[in-house]
């Protein structure tokens, strides 16, 4: 955590969340989609909701939610000092909004909505189990991320569909606990996991070049500079704090954690190699 752009003291005077909404593709559109998904749940359930925004960053989306849903309780959950201070300041005038400044895994109150927006690729993926524990029976997980544009093949998808567990160890994907254990014991990465990682890096690089060009074309130099650091972190296979994987992989992880996807919205109407942002609305199923 200490050396990501979110925690780096060099970014203390910069609100990374806010600049990204201007100079980075697809984030502002995702915000709008998430706010309307939560507003719809508020209308469907007919009662004020408690909404937890996990990895809220500097609180831009939390503030949008608090404004759009004035009778709901909005909790911005963040642990890195710079964005935490920024989120506190943004939410200060909102009586029903608050900040939870410990790791999400320590949150233990029931909530109707967990929003995970851009945070999935920063967290150990087993946080999805904790989401299930804290969601009310009628609750919803709205999970959107900047994914690595899809790099899994139809065969990979079939293989994952047969997997009873999906694990990410040192940045490599394993489709069974036994395969992960064998890797831990021998240090040898199976051919399939190596190939997925190679394809991930290629797809990521295409995406980051597009993001960089998008920022440069708008003169959004702080965004480009931050993205160069983020791209470097992400391309380092074992960097657990910045590791974007594929939408299909998340879909399998959601199913394995007992979530049913009710809506899937892809942001950005372009070539699939340049489609990174996807937002899912999920309910706890069986
Ligand atoms: C890309 S940022 C999310 C951006 C933010 N959701 C927004 O809308 O601007 C991911 C954030 O997750 C936070 N994070 C990482 N691990 C966490 C944890 N265990 N609990 C809460 N937040 C965490 C990081 O500090 C980082 O600020």
Q: How do you describe this structure in short?
A:
This protein is an alpha/beta fold.
State the fourth-level CATH superfamily of the largest domain: Vaccinia Virus protein VP39
Sheet with the most strands, sense and barrel status:
7 strands, mixed
- Low-pLDDT stretches are none
Fraction of helical residues = 40-55%
The N- and C-terminal alpha carbons lie at a distance of: 34 Å
Backbone shape: globular
- How many E strands? 9
- Ligand names: S-adenosylmethionine
| Count of helical regions | 10
In terms of DSSP E residues, the strand content is 15-25%
String of helices and strands: HHEHEHEEHEHEEHHHHEE
Assign the structural class, choosing from mainly alpha, mainly beta, alpha/beta, alpha+beta, or little secondary structure.
alpha/beta
What's the average pLDDT? Answer: 95
What does it look like?
The protein has two domains: 181 residues, Rossmann fold, CATH 3.40.50.150; 82 residues, no CATH class. It is 44% helix and 19% strand. The chain has a seven-stranded mixed sheet, with helices on both faces. Strand 2, helix 4 and strand 3 form a beta-alpha-beta unit. The longest helix has 27 residues. The mean pLDDT is 95. The structure holds S-adenosylmethionine. S-adenosylmethionine binds next to helix 3. It comes from Bailinhaonella thermotolerans. This is Class I SAM-dependent methyltransferase.
């Amino acid at each position: 955590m200490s050396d990501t752009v979110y925690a780096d003291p060099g970014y203390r005077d910069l609100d990374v969340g806010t600049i990204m909404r201007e100079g980075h593709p697809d984030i502002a559109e995702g915000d709008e989609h998430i706010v309307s998904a939560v507003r719809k749940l508020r209308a469907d359930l007919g009662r004020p909701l408690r909404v937890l925004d996990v990895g809220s960053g500097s609180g831009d989306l939390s503030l949008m939610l608090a404004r759009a849903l004035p009778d709901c309780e909005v909790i911005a959950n963040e642990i890195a000092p710079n964005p935490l201070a920024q989120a506190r300041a943004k939410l200060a005038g909102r009586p029903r909004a608050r900040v939870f400044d410990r790791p999400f895994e320590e949150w233990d109150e029931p909530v109707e909505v967990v929003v995970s927006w851009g945070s999935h690729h920063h967290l150990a993926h087993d946080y999805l189990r904790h989401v299930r524990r804290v969601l009310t029976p009628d609750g919803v997980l709205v999970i959107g991320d900047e994914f690595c544009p899809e790099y899994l093949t139809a065969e990979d998808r079939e293989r994952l569909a047969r997997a009873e567990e999906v694990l990410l160890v040192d940045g490599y994907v394993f489709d069974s606990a036994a395969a992960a254990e064998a890797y831990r014991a021998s240090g040898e990465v199976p051919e399939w996991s190596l190939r997925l990682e190679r394809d991930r890096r290629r797809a990521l690089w295409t995406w980051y070049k597009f993001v960089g060009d998008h920022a440069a074309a708008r003169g959004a130099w702080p965004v480009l500079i931050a993205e160069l650091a983020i791209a470097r972190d992400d391309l380092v296979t074992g960097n657990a704090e910045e590791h974007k994987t594929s939408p299909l992989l998340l879909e399998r992880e959601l199913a394995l954690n007992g979530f049913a996807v009710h809506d899937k919205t892809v942001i950005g109407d372009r070539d699939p190699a340049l489609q990174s942002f996807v937002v899912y609305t999920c309910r706890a199923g069986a």
